[in-house]
Amino acid sequence: MYKHILVPVDGSQQSEKALEHAVRLAEALQADTQITVLHVTPPIVLNEPEINVDRTDCRRSGQSYLQGGSS
């Protein structure tokens, strides 16, 4: 039925529940279903003061999320 499920996550409880649901759905299908987790960050607004975004921290946060930890 589904070959690929995309799950955007942002660290919120709602996105964690969505990821859990996607995993349960993939297991229920008993098929070769791939889950892609997309870690999203809040948008940067141009008229706000400059925000220094550290890509290393973003990557670390995403990896921690995938491993089940929190950052």
Automatic annotation (TrEMBL):
<feature type="domain" description="UspA">
    <location>
        <begin position="1"/>
        <end position="44"/>
    </location>
</feature>
<dbReference type="InterPro" id="IPR014729">
    <property type="entry name" value="Rossmann-like_a/b/a_fold"/>
</dbReference>
<protein>
    <submittedName>
        <fullName>Universal stress protein</fullName>
    </submittedName>
</protein>
<dbReference type="Pfam" id="PF00582">
    <property type="entry name" value="Usp"/>
</dbReference>
<dbReference type="InterPro" id="IPR006016">
    <property type="entry name" value="UspA"/>
</dbReference>
